[in-house]
Design goal:
Layout: E1 3-9, H1 17-28, E2 32-38, H2 44-52, E3 57-62, E4 89-92, E5 98-101, H3 104-109, E6 121-125, H4 129-141, E7 145-149, H5 153-162, E8 167-170, E9 181-184, E10 208-211, H6 220-227, E11 231-233, H7 235-251, H8 260-268
Parallel strand pairs: 1-2, 1-3, 6-7, 6-9, 7-8, 9-10, 10-11
Antiparallel strand pairs: 3-4, 4-5
Amino acid sequence: MTRYAEVIGDPIDHSKSPLIHGFWLKELGIDARYERHRVEASGLGGYFADRAADPEWRGCNVTLPHKEAALDHVPDPGGLRQSIGAVNTVFRGDDGALVATNTDAAGFYAPLGATDLVGAHVALVGSGGAARAILFALSRIGAAHVTLMARNPLKGAGLLAAFGLKGDIVPLDSPLPPVDLLVNASVLGMAGQPALAIDLDPLPDHAIVYDIVYAPLETPLLAAARARELATIDGLEMLIGQAALAFELFFGVEAPRGKDAELRALLTA
């Protein structure tokens, strides 16, 4: 038997996680595998029950649309429900029990580590599981005001309150305020989804545009930002960052981050 981990979601064929983890496993000479597995919402509970009984299963990454629902099926010893409110990684603890955690917040923050965002005005598009992790990170780094662009204003207001953030909630088609950081945490711009139609003209020249979508890597939002010569961060930054933390939880060793340039070349080939 071979140890293995997975990424689950619906849809899942677009996921680059198997390429990332497979690259690291090969680099480190680890006898294990990492696969995609499509799980429908109705099968989420059964999936975790089956995998909990399989000693070779080391865990999974959780993507759309299961990041919030997974909390109903996996033990939450770290209090994720009360903090971030979403799961992106489930791993098997030392005692064999499943553990829910979230590496998205740290993965999101990593490429911003050298940027002073204390007192910043941030615009965030989306209010799903990834947005929750980003709001958690923003609350920890001292963002002063968050304009949350969301379809559901009541849900948006609840999210800002949950993370103790000051801000406002506006519809997705609202004009963009002159923010320091714009983050797209929605599916808009993803392959098969409508583009994120937003005018970047109000942004100041120092603004950063961060799109967590990675399929395609060059989203219309990032292309527009680069045309304006704004600083940009693409979806691979967060994807690789959160994956590295999950990899160590699954396989017990650090991911070889010194190989990031080679990994990015593989992912963009």
